[in-house]
Design brief:
Blueprint: E1 5-11, H1 13-17, E2 23-27, E3 33-35, H2 42-52, H3 56-63, E4 67-68, E5 72-74, E6 78-81, E7 86-93, H4 100-109
Antiparallel strand pairs: 1-2, 1-7, 2-3, 4-5, 5-7, 6-7
Length: 114
């Protein structure tokens, strides 16, 4: 089932100083980044979400989650560019339609025993 989404956030020293990210958006199953510039246009946003939907296995392999944030799971920050100091972090998002028991099963699959 292709219902999971992976998001990314890139922080640079400058963006972190300003309390924001330099870039953020969605990741496709092929690893392509889609900058989240279409938030205000619902139709374009829906197309991006559809193109970026993936299976739990694909999402898990891309994120390697280590933090359980309730309705989404986050990986470690990784240095992406040593020259600029930019770091990237990926998040795995559970479908909004998932029931509490489904979310509990997903947690177990991802290695979180809650």
């Amino acid at each position: 089932m292709r219902a999971f989404h992976v998001t990314y956030a890139i922080a640079t020293p400058e963006s972190a100083e300003a309390g924001d990210y330099a870039e953020r958006g969605y990741v496709s199953p092929e690893g392509l980044l889609f900058v989240n510039q279409f938030e205000r246009d619902i139709r374009k946003h829906a197309v991006i979400l559809d193109e970026c939907a993936m299976s739990l296995r694909q999402a898990r392999d891309m994120v390697c989650p280590v933090y359980d944030n309730g309705s989404w799971f986050e990986g470690e920050w990784q240095t992406r560019d040593y020259a600029t100091g930019a770091e990237v972090c990926y998040g795995l998002h559970v479908p909004c339609s998932a029931t509490p028991s489904t979310v509990a099963r997903i947690r177990r699959v991802l290695g979180f025993n809650k």
